[in-house]
Amino acid sequence: MPKDKTMLKLHHLPISFNSRRVWIALLEKGLDFESIPMKLDGDQLTPEFLALNPFHHIPVLVDENFSIFESLAILDYLEAKYPTPSLIPSDPQGLGTVKMINLVTINELLPATRPLIRQSMGFATIETAEKKQAEEKSAIVLNFLENLIGDRPYIVGDTLSLGDIVAGTMVGFLQNIDVSLTSYPKLSTWIEHLSQRESWQQTEPQPEQIAEFRETIKQFMAQRSSK
Ligand SMILES: N[C@@H](CCC(=O)N[C@@H](CS)C(=O)NCC(=O)O)C(=O)O
């Protein structure tokens, strides 16, 4: 497969962990792509974007005349179309574990931390009881991941996989919403190790970008509620 992939376009919000997993996969695979950054200030509601994703969510990947959304589906697409370097193990247990980790991230870690994310990003204020519940649920997932990763550098085997990318970007994001990893030394070491990668460094959300997004959302929500 030739590596001229300038036809790939990624519509994304650079600070979003939902987009970042796709962005990192593109970089790790050495694929050339056009970055189309969005603000989510209403730009996701334009007819052009709704034609790409009627649910107005980033990320969206466009590969010539094919367009796809849902980050995990995009990762599967990239893996099938651009298999080298591979980001999924070929043995059944490794493959199953990576898929499990990806689903645990989306179906367990994200819902558990969502109230904390919403509060931190300025979407909502949450009550003390809801905060406590979110922290308790998050701790169950983080403990699971802590035990799974153990002393290995990567979540499965000796090389980076989609499990590291999907879970690692979400776990790494928690520091931005004041969820501490100090009780999870193995996870902290793993995140530290992933952070050394060029793909991680190139895509790390910066505090000023997060602050800017909080402001954008505040204005967008104020505009919507005044309509
Ligand atoms: N399940 C989707 C979730 C994508 C998602 O929630 N994207 C958010 C940003 S992180 C979004 O685009 N929100 C804008 C909106 O809902 O209008 C995926 O994994 O791609």
3D structure, described in words:
It is a single chain. The chain has 227 residues and is an alpha+beta fold. The protein has two domains: 8-86, Glutaredoxin, CATH 3.40.30.10; 92-196, Glutathione S-transferase Yfyf (Class Pi), Chain A, domain 2 (Up-down Bundle). Helix content is 57%, strand content 7%. The protein is built from nine helices and four strands; from the N terminus they run E-H-E-H-E-E-H-H-H-H-H-H-H. The protein has a four-stranded mixed β-sheet, with helices on one face. The radius of gyration is 18 Å and the shape is globular. Glutathione binds at residues 13, 16, 18, 40, 44, 56-59, 70-71.
Helices and strands, with pairings:
Blueprint: E1 8-12, H1 17-28, E2 34-37, H2 47-52, E3 60-63, E4 66-69, H3 71-81, H4 92-121, H5 128-149, H6 162-173, H7 185-195, H8 198-203, H9 207-225
Helix pairs in contact: 1-3, 1-6, 4-5, 4-6, 5-7, 6-7
Could you give a quick summary of the protein structure above?
The protein has 227 residues and is α+β, with helices and mostly antiparallel strands. It has helices at residues 17-28, 47-52, 71-81, 92-121, 128-149, 162-173, 185-195, 198-203, 207-225; strands spanning 8-12, 34-37, 60-63, 66-69.
